[in-house]
């Protein structure tokens, strides 16, 4: 058994070191091999220097990959899950520490304890972010209406999946709504997956990369994916389980 956790980083010089340190303390509880694939996503601050130091501190568990070009949130997740993560259970979490390391550990442990489930993801709870919380609620209702994905937090992370399952999904999206494609295809192929409550907390440093333009991009990409699956439906003769 090997666990591979990818962590994309773009200008996370303030947050990445405490985030990795806390994840290391939790993942050391596993009696299995584990690795953190930490991607410097063309950062313009000292993120890469921080990652180099973390690699020296944890050479067996922290692997650093530097990209000269930023290929977007979905792009780096798709590329990493297909090319960089080599474990039996693969997935990603955030660099900013907004999800407790203990909850990331809990999510992976759930998949280990429940082999009938092929994937697990976070539903972020106690998000006290005013307008963003409201927008997120409306967005989730729209996604549930369009795709019948029964989740309270479609963009929740961490998300972990068995590698053999991921390889059957043929994930194509390289944008903000990659979560939708993953969960939608899990559902259509009748793979069991699970939402687990994970405590949301303040960033360990830096600023969020989500802005008003990002929200517009989300909506455009959601509708584009909806149109695409209407044109090229996923074959599934039976109703999916969750």
Give a description of the structure.
- There is one protein chain.
- This protein has 242 residues and is α/β, with parallel strands linked by helices.
- The chain has a single domain, classed as Spore Coat Polysaccharide Biosynthesis Protein SpsA, Chain A (Alpha-Beta Complex), CATH 3.90.550.
- The chain has eight helices and seven strands; from the N terminus they run βαβαβαβαβαβααβα.
- It has a seven-stranded mixed beta sheet with strand order 3-2-1-4-6-5-7, sandwiched between helices.
- α1 links the parallel β1 and β2.
- α1 runs parallel beside α4.
- The longest helix is centred in the C-terminal third of the chain and has 20 residues.
- It is globular and about 50 Å long.
- The C terminus is likely disordered.
Numbering strands along the chain, what is their spatial order in the largest sheet?
Answer: 3-2-1-4-6-5-7
Total DSSP E strands:
7
Order of helix and strand elements from N to C terminus? EHEHEHEHEHEHHEH
Tally of helical runs? 8
Percentage of residues assigned to helices: 40-55%
CATH topology: Spore Coat Polysaccharide Biosynthesis Protein SpsA, Chain A
Parts with pLDDT < 50 across at least 5 consecutive residues: 236-242
- The overall pLDDT, averaged over residues, is 89
Percent strand equals 15-25%
Instruction: Decide which structural class fits the backbone.
Output: alpha/beta
The major beta sheet can be summarized as: 7 strands, mixed
Principal-axis shape equals globular
- Label the CATH architecture: Alpha-Beta Complex
Q: What is the highest CATH level, the class?
A: Alpha Beta
Radius of gyration: 17 Å
């Amino acid at each position: 058994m090997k666990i591979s956790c990818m962590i994309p980083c773009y200008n996370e010089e303030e947050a990445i070191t405490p985030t990795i340190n806390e994840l290391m303390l939790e993942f050391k509880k596993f009696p299995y091999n584990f690795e953190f694939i930490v991607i410097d996503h063309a950062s313009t601050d000292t993120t890469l220097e921080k990652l180099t130091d973390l690699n020296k501190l944890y050479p067996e568990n922290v692997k650093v990959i530097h990209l000269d070009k930023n290929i977007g949130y979905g792009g780096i997740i798709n590329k990493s899950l297909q090319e960089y993560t080599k474990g039996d259970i693969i997935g990603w979490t955030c660099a900013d520490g907004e999800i407790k390391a203990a909850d990331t550990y809990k999510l992976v442990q759930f998949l280990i304890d429940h082999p009938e489930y092929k994937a697990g993801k976070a539903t972020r709870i106690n998000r006290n972010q005013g307008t963003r919380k409201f927008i997120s609620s409306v967005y989730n209702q729209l996604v549930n209406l369009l795709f019948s994905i029964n989740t309270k937090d479609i963009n929740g992370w961490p998300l972990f999946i068995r590698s053999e399952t991921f390889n059957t999904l043929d994930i194509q999206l390289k944008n903000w709504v990659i979560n939708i494609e993953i969960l939608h295809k899990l559902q259509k192929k009748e793979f069991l997956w699970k939402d687990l409550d994970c405590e949301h907390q303040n960033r360990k440093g830096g600023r969020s990369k989500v802005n008003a333009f990002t929200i517009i991009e989300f909506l455009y990409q959601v509708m584009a994916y909806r149109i695409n699956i209407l044109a090229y439906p996923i074959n599934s003769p039976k109703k999916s389980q969750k």
